[in-house]
Write a structure and sequence with these properties.
Radius of gyration: 24 Å
Strand order of the largest sheet: 1-2-8-5-3
Structural class: alpha+beta
Number of domains: 1
Shape: globular
Number of strands: 12
CATH topology: Cytochrome p450
CATH architecture: Orthogonal Bundle
Largest sheet: 5 strands, mixed
Number of helices: 21
Helix content: 40-55%
Length: about 500
């Protein structure tokens, strides 16, 4: 065969592949051509990839929806919505499923799904039924008491090492809060705290390893390489392993060791989440996988929520003083135990209107989980109503969630939606309040996709915010740069939240 013949065949092959590529891109573009979006998003993933790599895709999604409407295009075949009605519809209607392209990238282990990454609706529903009793607290009577122990450990740590007097003793609040949430979820989930608070140290570099793992997974998703970690044969050498000395592997090793230790002890009578999972049929790899996901997701999401709330309290003196006044008055009236006599209970925290308003507002302006979490549209497509107009979503497309766009919506929250103003939750306008509550609850998911750890997170947040502000005054050491933050797969890596802490004497009136 001559050189000219080989050359001709090569050119033909290249032209054929190019034509196939153009046909595919044109077909995908035509399917969503009626939806507007940033330049090139109809034919290229790069605008979306760049936003993911920058660690601020949540802000980009909000900008896209603000400019191009409540349903807009962010990549070929991918839509984003800031409409609470659309997102509730997508999560309620049968036929929609989690998108493999996103959720497969959130798998921690090689070709093993957990309750978060599972994209098969039937398998996901079954796993939720097995795990829900453990998360709800119904089968863990010591849930609140265990959280109280961790709150007390954090207060003791701050009081013993970080209270400033003649000289400022800087404290990285971001680290202490994450020590707290990781110790909580390991103790209520696995029956044994990792001991971060008692040692005031990132034990075995678990937190550092987790952040490294999230960063690598985020980069792989942005560049389109995440599928390699799940590919046959090759994936085994790429995906995290409990034999690794860094990344997710390090945390996997610690978690699996605790799970196997408990599973081997048939006489262990502790009643915690792990015991509940075992009672409801989780064993071996299933048990390890779900326990690992619980530790990673349960710690990072709740710590982001607490740090976001505290950030906005500390940078709003009016809110700070008003909240401390409510705290002091609740103690004075005997609605909450005095300091030294016990911590606030979860039930008591729910009865403090301004505390609850501050928590809701902090979660609203700084959602603790903010990524696309996309759903595939049913094969036959779906028609829904958006702002009074009928809109058809074609089958084969996927649609995701714009957290910042939704939870800073002027239509739902008023013209000052970008501002931190807890008083909006104390409005006498019942219709507006109902719409705000309905929308804000979506940050915990909706319907069959609602966050299983919502109850545990709410207990942690209410207790810790109350007790920190009851016992201490906190101020940022560098108020012009209060923290560093990056979005990795929707979870926030927050660091350098340096504060000055002083003891406080509650106001008597």
């Amino acid at each position: 065969m001559g050189v000219d013949t080989l050359y001709g065949q090569g050119v033909t092959l290249i032209c054929g592949l190019l034509a196939l590529y153009i046909f595919r891109i044109t077909t995908v573009y035509a399917k969503l051509r009626k939806f507007r979006g940033p330049s090139w998003t109809g034919i290229s993933n790069w605008p979306h990839s760049i936003a993911i790599l920058r660690g601020n895709c949540h802000e980009w999604y909000a900008e896209v929806n603000n400019k191009h409407g409540p349903i807009a295009r962010v990549a070929p075949g991918v839509l984003i919505t800031s409409s609470p009605d659309v997102w509730m519809h997508v999560n309620n209607k049968p036929g929609y499923k989690r998108s493999d392209w996103y959720y497969n990238a959130t798998r921690i282990e090689y070709r093993k799904d957990n309750v978060f990454s599972q994209t098969d609706n039937a398998k996901h529903e079954q796993r939720r039924k097995q795990m829900a009793p453990g998360y709800s607290g119904r089968e863990n009577p010591n849930l609140e008491g265990t959280i109280d122990e961790r709150v007390q450990e954090l207060l003791t740590l701050v009081r013993s090492k970080y209270v400033s007097s003649d000289q400022v003793v800087p404290m990285d609040l971001s680290k202490k809060v994450q020590y707290f949430t990781l110790d909580v979820i390991s103790s209520v989930g696995l029956g044994k705290a990792f001991g971060m608070l008692q040692s005031d140290h990132d034990v075995e570099n678990y937190l550092q390893s987790t952040e490294e793992g999230l960063e690598m997974a985020n980069t792989a998703l942005a560049l389109g390489f995440s599928w390699l970690a799940q590919a046959p044969f090759v994936g085994r050498f790429i995906a995290p392993s409990p034999k690794d000395n860094n990344g997710f592997g390090r945390m996997m090793n610690a978690c699996f060791h605790l799970v196997d230790e408990r599973a081997a002890s048939s006489t262990d009578e502790r009643s915690d989440m792990l015991a509940s999972f075992i009672r409801h049929g989780l064993h071996d790899d299933e048990l390890r996988t779900e326990a690992l996901e619980q530790i990673l997701a349960g710690s990072d999401t709740t710590s982001a929520a607490i740090r976001g709330i505290l950030l906005h309290i500390l940078t709003n003196p009016r809110v700070y003083l008003k909240l401390q006044r409510e705290i002091d008055e609740a103690v004075r009236r005997g609605e909450v135990s005095s300091a030294g006599e016990g911590l606030i209970t979860a039930a008591q925290a729910k009865q403090l209107p301004y505390l609850q308003a501050v928590i809701r507002e902090g979660l609203r302006v700084c959602p603790p989980v903010a990524n696309i979490f996309s759903r595939d549209v049913p094969a036959g497509g779906d028609t829904l109503v958006v702002d009074g107009e009928s809109v058809f979503l074609p089958g084969g497309a996927s649609i995701g969630y714009s957290a910042y766009g939704m939870h800073r919506s002027e239509k739902v929250y008023g013209k000052d939606a970008d501002a931190f103003r807890p008083e909006r939750w104390l409005t006498s306008d019942r219709a507006m309040l109902a719409e705000m509550v309905r929308t804000s609850d979506l940050m915990f998911g909706h319907g069959k996709f609602q966050c299983l750890g919502k109850v545990v997170a709410q207990i942690e947040i209410g207790k810790l915010v109350f007790e920190l502000l009851r016992n201490f005054d906190l101020a940022f050491i560098n108020p012009t740069h209060p923290w560093d933050v990056q979005n990795y797969l929707g979870l926030f890596a927050i660091s350098n939240m340096w504060v000055q802490v002083t003891n406080r004497t509650p106001c008597s009136s």
